[in-house]
Amino acid sequence: MTLEEVVRSITPADQKAAAAAKARWDSIAKPLGSLGALEDAVIRMAAMMGTPNVDISKRAVVVMCADNGVVAQGVTQTGQEVTAIVAENMSSGDTSVCAMARHAGAEVVPVDIGTATPLKGERILQKNIRRGTADLTQGPAMTREEAERAVLTGVEIAKDLCAKGVKLLGTGEMGIGNTTTSSAVACVFLNREPVDMTGRGAGLSSEGLVRKIHAIETGIALNQPDPADPLDVVSKVGGLDLAGLAGVFLGGALCHVPVLVDGFISSVAALIAARLCPACTDYMLGSHASDEPASKLVLAELGLEPFLYAGMRLGEGTGAVAVMPLLDMGLAVYREMTTFEATDIEAYQPLT
Ligand SMILES: O=C(O)c1ccc[n+]([C@@H]2O[C@H](COP(=O)([O-])O)[C@@H](O)[C@H]2O)c1
Ligand SMILES: Cc1cc2nc[nH]c2cc1C
Questions:
Q1: What is the DSSP letter of 347?
Q2: Catalytic residue list contains 145
Q3: 73 and 183: one domain?
Q4: 115 in ligand 1 pocket by Cβ < 6 Å?
Q5: Which of 19, 95, 294, 338 is 20 to 30 A removed from 87 (C-alpha atoms)?
Q6: Do residue 225 and residue 297 come from a single domain?
Q7: Active-site pick, 81, 145, 316, 346
Q8: Do 156 and 49 fall within a single domain?
């Protein structure tokens, strides 16, 4: 499929199924609406799936791994080599998201979408578009064609997983320097200044933070990304992980499968997808508000409410995976609870 075909094929979520799910919640013997965001999530998932019989039993988290040329500007605490080390550990099950995913019953799918060096590991999907991006302070991070190929790769990965029966997708990433690219992309879309949108990422000194803000200012001034053209923005000041994850959001929407946003980087990828295809936001679920300063602004722009305010800022998909057990618990009540009709409690009347 071409990107235009993908965008054209995504349809809004089904409001009839949402109404049926809401009716089911309102029949359950408990105060109306009292499970708050858990009820909303089940209703929204019913709309996404087109049925009140919500099923998220099979789940996977796609972890896009890529390197970013902007690390040459001293914008990160650790070196670029960490990307490959952590990405390979995704394959052996030795990362934070892997431990959490085992608990949440999710498959971790690490993808080499653009790491600087080839990755070893049986479980890694080898989809490298290029061996790391160029330094965005010197010119565009990548070509428009490379960005488009990365988006389409994400779409295909999501479609393949859905074809294998996955009913809930999580997004995650690993890429030293990707909070710099994410802040740059967010600045362009939200028309904000880098000083307000930039944080310390995986850990950065105060001098490093000044360099990071300066690199973003330079990259935007030099490349002049067009905020009305998402592929222009992601190719000039973004990264391959951002482009690939934007594709996962589109692919999930195409398959009527909910896609959980993770932290700051993932939320910016969701914003790229939303700018490519506004209807795909119907298929997104928030997870947590990352500690990165711009995280809440980006989630608000997407109209998403995070479940968790837990001060997390790890990435990898840890936030997305963290809310899966919460969704399971919401669904347990939705499916298993007795109704007002079956008890002696008089049904609540909706508040007027
Ligand atoms: O998801 C987040 O909100 C998040 C916030 C800060 C850091 N990270 C992770 O840390 C890495 C990026 O940080 P940095 O400082 O190298 O730009 C990358 O591998 C992300 O997974 C992730
Ligand atoms: C060790 C390490 C693990 C990570 N996981 C996601 N980003 C990361 C950054 C570092 C530095």
A1: P
A2: no
A3: yes
A4: no
A5: 294
A6: yes
A7: 316
A8: no
Using a 6 Å cutoff on CB, does residue 76 contact ligand 1? yes
Question: 86: Cβ below 6 Å to ligand 2?
Answer: yes
How would you write the pLDDT of the chain (352 residues) with one tens digit per residue? 999 999 999 999 999 999 999 999 999 999 999 999 999 999 999 999 999 999 999 999 999 999 999 999 999 999 999 999 999 999 999 999 999 999 999 999 999 999 999 999 999 999 999 999 999 999 999 999 999 999 999 999 999 999 999 999 999 999 999 999 999 999 999 999 999 999 999 999 999 999 999 999 999 999 999 999 999 999 999 999 999 999 999 999 999 999 999 999 999 999 999 999 999 999 999 999 999 999 999 999 999 999 999 999 999 999 999 999 999 999 999 999 999 999 988 876 666 6
In terms of domains, do 157 and 203 share one? yes
CATH number at 273 reads 3.40.50.10210
Residue 296 lies in a domain: yes
349 within a domain of the structure (yes/no) = no
Are 240 and 185 in contact, with CB atoms under 8 Å apart? no
Domain count, the chain: 2
Regarding whether 338 and 318 lie in a shared domain, the answer is no
In the reported structure, the alpha carbon of residue 342 is separated from the centroid of ligand 2 by a whole-number distance in angstroms of 51
Q: What span, in angstroms and rounded, lies between the C-alpha atoms of 304 and 310? A: 16
Is the Cβ atom of 173 under 6 angstroms away from ligand 1? yes
Q: How far is the CA of 269 from the centre of ligand 1 (A)?
A: 13
Q: Kindly give the distance from the C-alpha atom of residue 174 to the centroid of ligand 1, in angstroms, as a whole number.
A: 7
Cα gap 9→253, rounded to integer Å:
9
The residue whose CB lies within 8 Å of the most ligand 1 atoms, and thus the one to mutate among 178, 297, 298, is: 178
Residues 241 and 99 in one domain: yes
Nearest CA to ligand 1 atom 20: 315
Q: Which two tokens stand for residue 268?
A: 């910016």
Instruction: Pick the closest to residue 286 from 298, 277, 294, 275 (CA basis).
Output: 298
Do 337 and 300 fall within a single domain?
no
> If you count them, how many residues does the chain have?
352
In short, whether 209's Cβ falls inside 6 Å of ligand 1 is no
Same-domain status, 169 and 302: yes
pTM: 0.98
Domain residues for the domain of 273 are: 59-329
Q: What is the ipTM of this complex?
A: 0.99
